[in-house]
């Protein structure tokens, strides 16, 4: 299965993105560090009293019992200190991570949603959703690994080396040398394993994307009998994931075996040296307890680090893609100090507009003016650039040359929100939220009352079918409105536009999904909606635009003719040809006689 190149951020960019949110909570972060220092102090100090206790019991002086109980009491104090500090560490970590993850979720969602229309049509919705969720969860894994595992382990091992060096320099130097060797060994192994980890992460992402793609297009799969094909395609993706996962797990096993060997070697070596120095009188029996206590704790920390390294790299791979998205500038942005659009007449001017995808030009020096309150229809064959014009007007794309003006204001110089607030748009294929009908209609004006929503629904003639539903306006419409028919979705979208009541109305094939009876109802609603508005209509069903003030005929991104319906019919040009094809010549003849 061919894969798109994964774009990832660097390690520095990932940590900068996370640190920016962590430093907003200095109290909790300072609490975490202080608690970690106390935990390590307790774990280093406790074994010193165990050493003293065993020395007392070994020499058995007259006051050994009293001193032994006193020493045991001090050991208990360190144990209690460690327990309290560890619990405090947990509370600080939980509070910090919850707050930071909240900010990260919000930051990822807000910034991603601010990307352009082009960004979203170029990425899987499921993959973006997955990245936003993983970005926040990855912080938890990275923070746990670095702050609660790597950092404490470093502090403890440094402390153990210092204590053993004080007891006997050779023991401290042996532990130091072994620690350097172990860390170097781990570093190089992790570098060698990184391609294996990355391959597994990429394979897992491909499995998720494959599932999301097939599930999102289940209807197409069923209609084209594609189940067997999808099973085979998914099996190939899954086989790649299985091989990558096995390679990752097998390499993990070898690393763990190597670690166990190194740990056994240093334990035997230190104890051997301790026996030699004990024979010479340089160490006591209690020193054996101290060495063993430190080694057991150090080994547990190192084993935990190895396990955390797997989570660390997986989390880093998860977060780096989202950080790259956060570092990618928004394609469509408000200029500094952009002003609110002020609509007075609703005049729209396309002035020498140029636009194209890749190297292909769709519009070349396109000029068109819609007078305030004028109703204009754009017609022409597919690919003429009609829908592109609406996307440029809504600033889903920026023009590559020329400008678009509304009442003399360049739309590139006003805020995007004010521009889109001034335009009610009904697309050819409206997509609804998986929310209730009343919420979907109210999206046109989110402060509207229930009565205003219902009134808009009545005008759009969707109140009738809503009233027949068991839950009426509280009915959930399913993902993307899948539980409604195409005509019902279209009427809900029109109700939303009616409720919005913006001064500029754009209809892109707004009646394309309606049957003849529904279209008759909607035409009446649209007639009322269009009053005192500047209207731009795109329609292939030419019967829906006969009453427009002006019809603009487009071909290959240019205006080739314009006028009223009758004027264009009589010109015997492209419009008359399109009309004849659609009406079979019958309506065309009749229209000429009107």
Give me the secondary-structure topology.
Elements (H helix, E strand, L loop, with lengths): L10 H12 L3 H34 L4 H50 L3 H5 L3 H43 L1 H48 L1 H6 L3 H53 L5 H43 L20 E10 L2 E11 L4 E5 L6 H8 L7 E6 L2 E2 L5 H6 L1 E4 L10 H6 L7 H10 L3 H5 L18 H15 L3 E5 L7 H14 L4 E5 L11 E6 L2 E6 L1 H6 L3 H10 L2 H8 L1
Parallel strand pairs: 3-8, 3-9, 6-7, 7-8
Antiparallel strand pairs: 1-2, 1-4, 4-5, 9-10
Physical arrangement of strands within the biggest beta sheet: 6-7-8-3-9-10
CATH architecture of one domain: Up-down Bundle
Q: Helix and strand string, N-terminal first?
A: HHHHHHHHHEEEHEEHEHHHHEHEEEHHH
Q: Quick one: CATH superfamily of one domain?
A: ABC transporter type 1, transmembrane domain
Count of beta strands: 10
From the alpha-carbon coordinates, what is the Rg to the nearest angstrom? 36 Å
Average pLDDT level: 80
Word description of this protein:
The chain is α/β, with parallel strands linked by helices. It has helices at 11-22, 26-59, 64-113, 117-121, 125-167, 169-216, 218-223, 227-279, 285-327, 386-393, 416-421, 437-442, 450-459, 463-467, 486-500, 516-529, 565-570, 574-583, 586-593; strands spanning 348-357, 360-370, 375-379, 401-406, 409-410, 423-426, 504-508, 534-538, 550-555, 558-563. The protein is elongated. It starts with 10 loop residues before the first helix and ends with a helix. Strand 7 (504-508), helix 16 and strand 8 form a beta-alpha-beta unit. It has a domain at 11-327: ABC transporter type 1, transmembrane domain (ABC transporter transmembrane region fold). It has a 6-stranded mixed beta sheet, sandwiched between helices. A 4-stranded antiparallel beta sheet has the order 2-1-4-5, covered by helices on one side. Helix 1 (11-22) packs across helix 9 and helix 8 (227-279) runs antiparallel to helix 9 (285-327). It is built from 19 helices and 10 strands.
């Amino acid at each position: 299965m061919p894969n798109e190149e994964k774009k990832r951020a660097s390690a520095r960019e990932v940590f900068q993105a996370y640190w920016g949110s962590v430093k907003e909570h200095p109290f909790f972060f300072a609490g975490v560090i202080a608690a970690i220092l106390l935990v390590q102090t307790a774990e280093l100090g406790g074994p010193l009293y165990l050493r003293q206790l065993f020395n007392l019991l070994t020499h058995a002086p007259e006051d050994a019992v009293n001193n032994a109980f006193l020493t045991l009491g001090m050991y208990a104090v360190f144990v209690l200190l460690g327990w309290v500090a560890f619990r405090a560490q947990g509370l600080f970590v939980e509070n910090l991570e919850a707050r930071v993850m909240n900010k990260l979720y919000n930051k990822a969602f807000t910034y991603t949603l601010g990307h352009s229309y082009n960004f979203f049509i170029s990425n899987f919705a499921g993959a973006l959703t997955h990245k936003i969720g993983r970005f926040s969860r990855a912080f938890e894994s990275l923070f746990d690994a670095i702050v609660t595992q790597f950092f404490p382990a470093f502090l403890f091992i440094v402390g153990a080396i210092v204590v053993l060096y004080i007891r006997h320099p050779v023991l401290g130097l042996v532990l130091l040398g072994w620690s350097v060797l172990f860390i170097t060994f781990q570093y190089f192994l992790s570098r060698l394993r990184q391609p294996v980890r990355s391959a597994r992460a990429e394979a897992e992402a491909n499995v998720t994307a494959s599932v999301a793609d097939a599930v999102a297009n289940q209807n197409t799969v069923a209609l084209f009998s594609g189940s067997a094909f999808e099973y085979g395609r998914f099996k190939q993706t899954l086989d790649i994931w299985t091989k990558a996962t096995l390679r990752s797990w097998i390499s993990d096993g070898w690393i763990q075996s190597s670690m166990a060997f190194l740990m056994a070697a240093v334990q035997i070596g230190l104890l051997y040296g301790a026996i030699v120095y004990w024979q010479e009188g340089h160490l006591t029996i209690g020193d054996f307890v101290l060495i063993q206590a430190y080694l057991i704790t150090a080994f547990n920390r190192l084993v935990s680090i190895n396990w955390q390294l797997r989570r660390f790299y997986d989390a880093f791979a998860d977060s780096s893609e989202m950080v790259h998205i956060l570092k990618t500038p928004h394609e469509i942005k408000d200029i500094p100090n952009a002003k609110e659009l002020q609509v007075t007449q609703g005049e729209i001017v396309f002035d020498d507009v140029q636009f194209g995808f890749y190297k292909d030009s769709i519009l070349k020096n396109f000029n068109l003016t819609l007078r305030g309150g004028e109703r204009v229809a754009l017609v022409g064959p597919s690919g003429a650039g009609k829908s592109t014009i609406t996307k440029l007007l809504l600033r889903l794309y920026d023009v590559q040359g020329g400008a678009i003006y509304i009442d003399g204001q360049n739309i590139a110089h006003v805020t995007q929100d004010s521009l889109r607030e001034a335009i009610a748009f009904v697309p050819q294929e409206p997509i609804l939220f998986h929310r209730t009908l009343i919420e979907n209609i109210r999206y046109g004006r989110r402060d509207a009352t229930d009565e205003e929503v219902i009134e808009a629904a009545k005008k759009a003639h969707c109140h009738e079918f809503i009233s027949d539903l068991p839950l009426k306006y509280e009915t959930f419409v399913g993902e993307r409105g899948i539980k409604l028919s195409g005509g019902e979705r279209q009427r809900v979208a029109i109700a939303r536009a009616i409720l919005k009541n913006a001064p500029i109305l754009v209809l892109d094939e707004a009646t394309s999904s309606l049957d003849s009876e529904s279209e008759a109802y909607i035409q009446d609603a649209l007639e009322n909606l269009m009053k005192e508005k500047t209207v731009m209509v795109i329609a292939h069903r030419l019967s829906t635009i006969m009453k427009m003030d002006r019809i603009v005929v487009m071909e290959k991104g240019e205006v080739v003719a314009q006028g009223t319906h009758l004027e264009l019919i009589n010109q015997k040009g492209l419009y008359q040809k399109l009309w004849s094809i659609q009406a079979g010549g019958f309506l065309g003849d009749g229209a000429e006689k009107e």
